[in-house]
Specification:
The chain folds into 4 domains: 90 residues, Ubiquitin-like (UB roll), CATH 3.10.20; 107 residues, Alpha-Beta Plaits; 57 residues, N-terminal domain of TfIIb, CATH 2.20.25; 45 residues, no CATH class. The longest helix has 14 residues. It contains 9 helices and 15 strands. The protein is α+β, with helices and mostly antiparallel strands. The chain is elongated. Bound molecules: iron/sulfur cluster (SF4) (2 copies) and FE2/S2 (inorganic) cluster (FES). One iron/sulfur cluster (SF4) binds next to helix 4.
């Protein structure tokens, strides 16, 4: 890979040919805000939140779609850049309902975060806001709030480029543009709930999780999905010792940024439903509850009297269980 030397905010950064400024900055630990950019999706360049100033270029450029070139000098915090980002935020919030107190995304919403870092002003908009669809069910796992959508198209690109199922599209124009299902489509592909993870705002929320707990109460524990033997990296997020949700953790060698719906919701098997809470022993007439001591003795006696044994392990076994077997 050919090295490329650039300067970001006066700091020398060495990146590689082909990288964009947003990638070079991220690699160097320099944060450039963004909404529509996602490292696993094609560049849309529509949100304009990543605007930067480049020496000798008269207009601001978007960092997500500007290649780093030798000796390029970039400013990410100049007064011109900060004013532009503030204007972008004001524009994005013009028709936004700002219903954070009842929005499930509150606490992990990029609009909230960037409002605090780049906007911090009262709305100057006193005309009637455009309204959009509320609580539209997109599929078994995902619900849409059109008024909160910033049209970043991350969800649309995910369904085009990752799942190739194309359930969603941008429809209509200007301030009537919105995200909609193709007629007759349902967002129910095996990776459908990933659109909730990549939606930077509260437009797409998880029907299973929403309104159960505020996200700032969640305790997060890095773990591995028990759903199958793939071993996707997850964050187990709990509230009062109960699992509230699984979220994917990035691991490019295993699951990249994603998690399948089956794995995402398999924790319900652990937390409820028809789960055995006492051992059962087969006696004449069927299964009857017994004590652990009694059950283990019966297992021991049964195994001892059996001939050669074979068994089937599954991805749900722990290493210790597999080793014991
Ligand atoms: S999307 Fe973000 S800013 Fe909008 S209501 Fe929800 S939490 Fe608030
Ligand atoms: S629903 Fe979310 S991910 Fe999709 S375009 Fe709107 S804001 Fe972006
Ligand atoms: S992140 Fe660059 S335009 Fe949206």
């Amino acid at each position: 890979m050919d090295p490329v030397n650039i300067i970001i905010d006066g700091r020398e950064v060495v990146t590689t040919k082909g990288k964009t400024v947003i990638q070079a900055a991220a690699d160097a630990g320099i944060v450039i805000p963004y909404y529509c950019y996602h490292p696993k999706l094609t560049i849309a360049g529509n949100c304009r939140m990543c605007l930067i100033e480049i020496e000798k270029m008269p207009k601001l450029q978007i960092a997500c779609n500007t290649q780093a070139t030798e000796a390029m000098s970039v400013l990410t915090q100049s007064p011109k850049v900060l004013a532009a980002r503030k204007a972008v935020m004001e524009f994005l919030l013009i028709n936004h309902p700002v219903d954070c107190p009842i929005c499930d995304q509150a606490g992990e919403c990029w609009l909230q975060d960037y409002y605090m870092t780049h906007d911090l002003q009262a709305s100057r908009f006193d005309a009637r806001k455009e309204h959009d669809r509320k609580r539209e069910i997109f599929g078994p796992n995902v619900v849409f709030d059109g008024e909160r959508c910033i049209k970043c198209t991350r969800c649309v690109r995910f369904l085009q480029e990752i799942t190739h199922t194309n359930e969603l599209a941008v429809v209509n124009r200007a301030d009537h543009s919105t995200i909609a299902l193709f007629p007759g489509s349902v967002l129910d592909n095996p990776l459908s709930a990933n659109v909730v993870d990549i939606c930077p705002v509260g437009a797409l929320t998880d029907r299973d999780f929403r309104f159960k707990v505020r996200v700032w109460y969640l305790q997060k524990t890095p773990s591995i999905c028990p759903g199958c033997s793939t071993g996707c990296n997850i964050s187990v997020e709990t509230y009062q010792n109960r699992i509230a949700r699984f979220k994917p953790r990035i691991n490019e060698a295993v699951n990249s940024h994603w998690l399948c719906d089956e794995g995402r919701y398999c924790f319900h098997d652990l937390t409820g439903g028809p789960r055995l809470t006492t051992p059962l022993i087969r006696q004449e007439g069927g299964l009857v509850p017994t004590t652990w001591e009694h059950a283990l003795q019966a297992v021991y006696a049964g195994l001892k009297s059996a001939g050669p044994l074979a068994g089937i392990l599954s991805g749900r076994n722990t290493n210790e269980e597999a080793y014991l077997f």
